[in-house]
Amino acid sequence: MSQKPKSSYQIMTSILSNYNPTKEEKEIINSFFMCRYLSGNQRAVFVGNFINRYYNELPLTVQYDLSKQLLRGKIKFIQAPKKEKINDKVLENITRYYRVSLSDAIQYLELMDQDEREHFETLYDGQ
Q1: How far apart are CA 44 and CA 42, in angstroms?
Q2: Cα separation values, 35 from 32, 41, 42, 44, 53, Å
Q3: Mean pLDDT split into 10-residue runs, the chain, 127 residues
Q4: Which residues touch 59 (CB under 8 Å, ≥6 apart)?
Q5: Is this structure's pTM higher than 0.70?
């Protein structure tokens, strides 16, 4: 009976464990998501920053091995980034104000700070 293949996330989080993935497993990791995952801990930010800078020059297996060697035993757990809840009213107001599609409005929303979001929440109230 064969073992269920591990997901990219499981392989990426194995940086902090004793599990040693195969070369093929390491190659399914997304470099961007690995940097994002590593940025969730102050001690791992420098590794994520280095990988982010040289991701196109370092093979994925090297990125993984470097992270594992530098962080071994220093960090026990990194919490995954929480998914942010999107306010439908704000999205509707952004699409209306900028006359853009919903997918474009989501991208606009990601670039806005909290004050801008609050502005769009009440922009068309009473109309």
Answers
A1: 5
A2: 5, 11, 12, 9, 10
A3: 69 88 90 88 91 92 93 79 78 92 88 88 81
A4: none
A5: no
